[in-house]
Amino acid sequence: MEDEFVAREKKILTILEQEIEDGEEMALVVKHIAERMLFGEKGYADADIRKHVVFDVTIGGEVEQSSVDFLVSLDNRKAMVVKCAAGSLSSRERHVVAAARVLDSVPVPVAMVMDPMSAVVLDAITGKVVGEGFESVPTKEQLTTMVAGRDVKPLAPEKLEREKRVLLAFDAIRCCVPQGANGGVALE
Questions:
Q1: Phi first, then psi: what are they for 103, rounded to 5°?
Q2: What does the DSSP assignment read for 132-175?
Q3: pTM of the prediction?
Q4: Cβ-proximal residues to 143 (8 Å cutoff; 6+ apart), any chain
Q5: Over the stretch 34-57, which tens digit does the pLDDT of each residue have?
Q6: What does the DSSP assignment read for 10-31?
Q7: Distance (Å, rounded) from C-alpha 169 to C-alpha 124?
Q8: Hey, is 111 helix, strand or coil?
Q9: Could you tell me which CATH class the domain 26-186 is placed in?
Q10: Residue-range domain boundaries for the chain
């Protein structure tokens, strides 16, 4: 009976490992799609975008790391974070909003999550969806308009702590989205 249990457990672990590997490969494909779209179709320059940005998240005296796949800055102001996923965008919307709210001392105003089939653009301050589909991915000019004149203030300490917990909970799930400092660029 115990041998049966061990064999079953090994089989389940093998399936889970394959699912994670497949998800990471698909997320990599999505990163390439996003990169081609941002640089090619949407008019961003190399200087506007940092890839795989890793940043520290301090909570309860512990320091963890999180990441975004792309950080778009305009005129030296962080404007949009992008996370790429293998699928299920609706389940990743809250994740990317939390990342946008925690990444810097003030929230990054726009957050986007992409999969191979679509994209969702969100106002990271309100958490509301402002566009769906690849056509909603803002051009450089559109993003400039979206963030112009927005007075973004730091989150209240208690809200910031909640956002950190949400972010780290999603990161811990590791469901098809690579996390942490696996070759990422540290946020300065």
A1: -55, -35
A2: ESGGGSPPHHHHHHHHTT----PPPHHHHHHHHHHHHHHHHH-S
A3: 0.81
A4: 72, 74, 79, 80, 110
A5: 999 999 899 999 999 999 999 999
A6: HHHHHHHHHHHHHHHHHHHHHH
A7: 18
A8: strand
A9: alpha beta
A10: 26-186
